[in-house]
């Protein structure tokens, strides 16, 4: 089912923060939170929580919340509940796993397309690092280079499912196939990608798939999903009394239990974006497919508008991408652009967005990066039109100063 204007308005009505009248084009840094998620977190606190594993009702509720969260995340990405590792964020979880998966004597392949959270944890383990280069003009991550980069000594290949500044969706499945043929593991950063379309981590070839709920309408919780059998062979440092079962052995300390209830509610929210039947996994695929089509239709309008402005430079033109634009405005710093748009009720970010290597490859890192405007399922055409009007004003402002 398509995202009709009625569906868009119904979805927007679920987000209390959108009532402030701003155009929220900052979703790539974190989405707004719908009422069902707010209610789920509030209800968890209201009903009472205890640590997991107890015999009293509050503890039993917490145990059920954790199990429900694992099942929900597994449905979202096409994994198994007992392979879902939960934590405070993707960066923390990736640092933990990097030290278990690689070390001195190993070889890892990382890419300059990635967010630094899927680069630095691997380069700081003492492993030998090989770099996959992104094309600075197109924003693509050429698959062919991986045949040269990956060899018998490669322990792990880390790559993104979508660039968080250019939106590039590389051919993850083809790259993972090359990695697996050489006996290497694959660690796929799905933080940006998960919010923008259906995910099947097995079809991608991801041995480990990382995601963060606050990028798809949930609270600040991260997750890494893997094959439970593969996790059995890993033994992290942990407290002696803490569980040694999978995936619990990877989770340090007491979880943010109420937030985990919010994660489940966020997945349910995504599954119900468009009316449908079937299992939650089936509804998620249908809803996220429709959401992606909606975002890309709006994005075509955004890109057409930006690219026709002579004072705007848009970076990257990948063949397959999320609805994410990265651009600069002549004569105006990215920070000034963001401030100008904020004054007109349009929320965007400026800078390198932690895409440290890619911002360097694009030649913008040392000059303040660029402006990022991204669309998610609750955005509508008026958001795009306000962005374009605000950016267009900067041309006339510049003309008036000269």
UniProtKB/TrEMBL annotation:
PANTHER family on file: CYSTEINE DESULFURASE, PYRIDOXAL PHOSPHATE (PLP)-DEPENDENT ASPARTATE AMINOTRANSFERASE SUPERFAMILY
Record's protein name: Cysteine desulfurase-like protein
Domain of life: Bacteria
Any single Pfam family the record assigns to this protein: Aminotran_5
Organism expressing this protein natively: Nonomuraea typhae
Span of domain Aminotransferase class V: 24-387
InterPro entries cross-referenced by the UniProt entry: Aminotrans_V_dom (IPR000192), Cys_dSase-rel (IPR011340), PyrdxlP-dep_Trfase (IPR015424), PyrdxlP-dep_Trfase_major (IPR015421), PyrdxlP-dep_Trfase_small (IPR015422)
């Amino acid at each position: 089912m398509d995202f009709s204007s009625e569906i868009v308005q119904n979805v927007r009505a679920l987000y209390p923060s959108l009532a402030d009248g701003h155009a929220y084009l900052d979703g790539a840094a974190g989405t707004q939170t719908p009422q069902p998620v707010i209610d789920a977190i509030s209800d968890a606190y209201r009903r009472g929580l205890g640590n997991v594993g107890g015999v009293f009702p509050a503890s039993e509720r917490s145990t059920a919340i954790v199990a429900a969260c694992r099942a929900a995340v597994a449905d979202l990405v096409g994994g198994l509940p007992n392979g879902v590792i939960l934590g405070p964020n993707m960066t923390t979880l990736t640092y933990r796993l990097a030290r278990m998966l690689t070390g001195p004597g190993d070889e890892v392949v990382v890419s300059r397309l990635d967010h630094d959270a899927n680069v630095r944890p691997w380069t700081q383990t003492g492993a030998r690092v090989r770099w996959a280069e992104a094309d600075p003009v197109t924003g693509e991550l050429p698959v062919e280079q991986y045949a040269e980069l990956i060899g018998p000594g490669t322990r792990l290949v880390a790559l993104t499912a979508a660039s968080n500044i250019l939106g590039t969706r590389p051919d993850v499945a083809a790259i993972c196939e090359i990695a697996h043929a050489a006996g290497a593991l694959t660690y796929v950063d799905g933080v940006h990608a998960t919010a923008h379309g259906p995910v099947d981590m097995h079809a991608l070839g991801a041995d480990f798939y990382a995601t963060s709920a606050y990028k798809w309408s949930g609270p600040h919780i991260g997750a890494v999903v893997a094959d439970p059998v593969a996790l059995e062979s890993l033994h992290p440092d942990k407290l002696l009394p803490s569980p040694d079962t999978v995936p619990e052995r990877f989770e340090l300390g007491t979880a943010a239990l109420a937030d985990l209830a919010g994660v489940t509610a966020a997945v349910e929210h995504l599954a119900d974006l468009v009316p449908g039947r079937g299992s939650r996994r089936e509804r998620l695929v249908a809803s996220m497919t429709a959401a992606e089509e909606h975002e890309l239709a709006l994005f075509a309008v955004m890109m057409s508008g930006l690219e026709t402005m002579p004072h705007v430079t848009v970076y990257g033109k990948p063949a397959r991408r999320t609805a994410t634009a990265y651009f600069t405005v002549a004569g105006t710093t990215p920070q000034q652009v963001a401030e100008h748009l904020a004054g007109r009720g349009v929320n965007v970010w400026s800078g390198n967005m932690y895409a440290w290597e890619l911002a360097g490859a694009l030649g913008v890192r040392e000059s303040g990066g660029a402006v990022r405007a991204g669309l998610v399922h609750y955005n509508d055409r008026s958001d795009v039109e306000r962005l374009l009007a605000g950016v267009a004003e900067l041309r006339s402002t510049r003309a008036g100063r000269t």
